[in-house]
Structures are given as C-alpha cells and as structure tokens.
Amino acid sequence: MLPPRKPKSNHKATTPLFLLLCLLLASCSQVHPQKVTSDGQPDITQNQIEDSAAESREIEPRTFPIDTFYTLLVAEVAGIRERYDVALANYYHQAEITKDAGVAARATRIARFLNARQAALRSARLWVELEPGNADAQLALTAELTLAGELTQALVHAEQALKLGGKAPLQSLAATAIGHEKLDEQIRAEFARLAQTYPKNDEVALAHAMVLRASKQYNQALTLVRRIQENNPGQLDAPLLQSHLLVDLGKRREAIELLEKLVSVHPSETRLRLQYARLLIREDLALARQQFAELVKQRPEDGNLILSLALIQYETNQLDAAKPLFDRLLELEQHQSSAHFYLGGLAEKQGEISTAVRHFRQVEPGNDYVEAITKGTKLLASTGEHGENEKWFTKLRQQHPRQEEHFFLMEVELLRKNDEPLMALKRVEQGLAAISGSGRLMYTRALLNDQLGNAAAFEQDLRNLLERDPENATVLNALGYKLIDDDARREEALDLISKALELEPEDPAIIDSMGWVQYHLGNYPAAEKYLRQAMEKLPDHEIAAHLGEVLWIQGDREGALKIWNDGLKINPQSKIIPAAMKRLQIKESLEQHVSDN
After folding, report:
1. Fewer beta carbons below 10 Å: N end or C end of the chain?
2. Does 364 score more than 70 pLDDT?
3. CATH number, span 385-468
C-alpha cells in the first residue's frame, strides 16, 4: 500500500535528498531488453538499478516543491512495488507541471520500458520540447514517431539527432516505410537527400539502399552497399543487404557464395548464417540442414530455428531426427500447433493411428487447423471409428458455432467417401434441423438421395433450391443432367441445361451436360462440338467417356478408343469409361488399342 498523501506545503526539497532518492529508487529510468517475472510483469534487474543510479548522478541539481517531490517519491516506490502504471502516471503528470527535462526523460523511458506507446510518444514530444538539443530526446521521439507511423515527422527528428551527433535509427525507419502499401514519394526523396547530406554515414546509406530496393532500383542499391562494404568491411548489414539484392537480380549463386565466405569469417553471426541457410534450401537441402543444425546449436531455445530444421528433416524423410525437434518445441511451448501437426504426420507414416489422431486433435486454429481435422477424422474413419468422429465434429461445432455448417459438410463428405451414405444422410438431416435454411446442406442431401436411388427426393430438394434461387447454374445443371436419363423429359433437361449454360458459359461441367443431352436427342455433331470443348477446358475421365461414346456411335472407332485411353490415363480407377465400353460391347477393342499403343 502506498503511504497517505501529505498535506500541501511550500517547502522545497533539498537537492542532496532528491539525488539520494534517485540513487535508491530510480529503477525504471532506463530502457532495457524487457524481461518478465513468472506472473508476466516486467522484471527490474540489479543492473538496471545500477544503470539508473548512474544516470541519476548526471541530473542537473535543482529543487522541487515538496508536493512534486512527494509525488515523484510515490512514483519511485510504485516502481519498486511493480506498480508501473502509477509510476508512469505520476512522472508524466509532474513532467507537465514542472516542465523539467529530466522528469520528462524519466517518464519517456518508463513508458518505453512498458511498451506504453501513446504515453511514450506524448512524453518524448514533451522531452524534445523542453530539451531540443538533447540527441537522446530526438532519438526517442524518432523511434516513437516511427512506431506510430508518422514517418515524415520521424525523419525530421532523426535528422536533428544526426546533427547533434546521435545515431538515428534510420534502418528501422526505412523498414517501416517499406512496409506500407505504398512507399510515399516524399519519403523516398527525403532518404535520398539525407544520403547526400551525410555521405559518410553508413546508417543513412543503408537506409537509402533499403528504400532503393523497395523501389526496385536494385543496381543503384547494390552499388551503394558495395561502397559501404569497401569502406567498412566490418559492417555486416551491408553484405547481408547485398545478398538480398543479388537474389533480386537473379544472381542467387553469387549471393550464396558471398554468404558462404561471410559465414566462414563470422561463424557466430546468426543473421548471416540464417540467410545463407534459407538460400540453400532451394539449392542444396543437405547443406541447408547442416546450417540450420549449427544455428540451433548457437541458439538452442529459438523455436523458429528449431522448427525450420525440423521441417527440413521431415521433408527429407529424416523422421528419427525430426521427432525430437518437434518434441523440443512442445517442451519450449513454441510453435506447439505446428509441432503437433507434424508429430501427427510422423505417427501416421509409422502406422500409429491413435498417436497421430491425438496430435492432430491438439492443433489449434491457424494454418494447419483444417488439414489436421481432415487428416485426423480420415484416419478415424478408415478404422471404422465413426462414433469418435461424431464426437470430434460435435465438439468442433460447439467450439466454432459460426462454422457449424462447414463442419457438418466435412463430416458428411467423409462418411460419403467411406461408403456410408445412409449415415451421411442422417448427419445431413441433423444439420438441416440445426440450420434449416442451409442451401449447401440441402444440395448435399439431394446428391446423397441420388446416390441412394431416391430420385423423387433428389428432385424435390433441387426444385426447392430453385424456388429460392432460380438462377443457380449449378442446381439447374444438376437437375437437367439427371433428367437426361428419362426419355420423356429430355426436352425439359435441355431447357434446364441451356439456362445454366447461359448463366455460366465457360463452365466445363455444364458444357459436358449440354453435349450429353444433345447426344441423347440424336444431335451427334452438336454433341461432339460441346464435348470436345468441355474436354479442352477440363480433361476429365467422365467427359472422355461421353465424348468417346459419341465418336463411337458416329463410326470414329479409332478416335473413340484414343479418347477413352486418355481418360483412363487421367483416372485409372474410372468406372464410367468401362461402363460405357460394356454398354457398347467394345472392351476387347480398347484392350487391343492400348496394347498397340
């Protein structure tokens, strides 16, 4: 608990007492790499206290009103007690009241330490206003303006820092500018001007080269970074950027050779080795694996590096080497979803179905989420564990109510593919009971009824869908295609397919339907025209079956056999082509054609 506020007084705090207070309590004044305690709060180390004390000794002696002194004391005590919000509020408030540059500086540093961006920007502006000749103040404001996206103003203060002898973070500023959708012409011009004004400043030159690269002026940027490298061989940002530029110019091998030399000279420079390893992935996977292995040795708790090495091991089928790396990610609690996804894949490859499913079920929403669900449920279905799949999909629908329809459709499709149409139909009915207006579920139910031979139910669902959406080309085509089989309804089929084709004239499935109905109406030349057009747009075994039959009926036996043979190459398991041949009693002819070719 903070001590009670003292009554207002006009007494002045003595400078020695204030300095002693700073020495003992100024633990929040410096911006250091932020660490956190087990409860997630920033961790103030002894080094930070000592650094802050050293800074406090440089504060220009002055006196403060006792209430100001007391407020700052409360702020420092709050910092010690990890009440950083109180410390920041008090310091900023007193900075505005006292107009003291030292207090404003302290407020800025506390805010930056806490990643309190708005407070840091306000404090930095005040600090610069009070002490414009301080390079550190200009640098702090440059950084905060950059983070706020106020790049033009950031450049103004960066130049002020340069004039005062500071080292402005222009590479960070350039990286932020490049990250915008459109690199502003004014920003480009400012970087060019600064490069001319400070021709010997490597930071300025590198930032300018980055902007040139973003503007695809690769050769100009390359000339610039090579000049930097010649003047300062120890400057590693320049050759690193040079390697990127060489890749941009299509000189990948030259970039690899450059990085190979640099890595041999600077073996502990992670950035260089990482860029080298990334370029090697497309050129020499074995050597890339070696480089990532070395990177992991250098930084054994870097999840990004561990994942990269694990993926290379996985892709090159080094499964025994990949598994401990994915396990390590789980231990570190980094990239856990990716680790579970690939551990599931490893277990699947090794035939450990239950282990694979367990890992797939632990993948969280993200890039691999849907694929993990697909793989896991497919494995369960292959072993006949439809009950487990039902539980899984039920849980998914509860967790993601907005995706309820999607997960019903996934489950139904899985059951259908595993020859469980009745179970699939039951699940569709459950889906429609939960989502009564779902057109996708109704269309799926129609297809399942068609598969089960219930033509009336199939047509009823499609008619209902057309009442709601009379210009749905997919539904029009599906119904029209089905009616082709009924001699008495082929004209109706033609009308439906014609309307679908008007709506979607480039759809190969609808073009195929038009060819097929023309064939059944006896219009063979028109049928051939449409079916050849469909086959050109989508080489497919079903279209090949139709086109081959049309050619056979017209007497082009050789052409028909060739088309069927091509269709079987597309899908060797096709049942449609053999059915057409059997219907026409020509299986032997195709076998002879295949053997001759």
Report:
1. N
2. yes
3. 1.25.40
